[in-house]
Write a structure and sequence with these properties.
116 residues; mainly beta; 8-stranded mixed β-sheet; globular; zymogen
Amino acid sequence: MLIEVFKSKIHRVRVTESDLNYIGSITIDEELLEASGIIVGERVFIVNVNNGERFDTYAIKGKRKSGEICLNGPAARRVQKNDIIIIMSFAQMTPEEAKTFQPKIIFPDEKTNLLT
């Protein structure tokens, strides 16, 4: 049996833009992706701290050290520029694996979205 377990989180980053006309996803600075262990194409869950919206999409790579956090496609309607969001991912594993698994949680600078 597999269970779904919290895998990683980018805690409290600022939305730098939103693009309603892009086909979908969330663009995340490559540095933040690597630090959090989130991979390109991975399903991510978004919580908007400003308005309480919760939704999911998939991650795409943004320019390294750009601080970019851009919601694309329909998800762009759920955020505004400068909103603070939390980005989370989950993984399936056996209960035995889950007992020793350690999630990756990063805390970027809310003003720049870069790691300090």
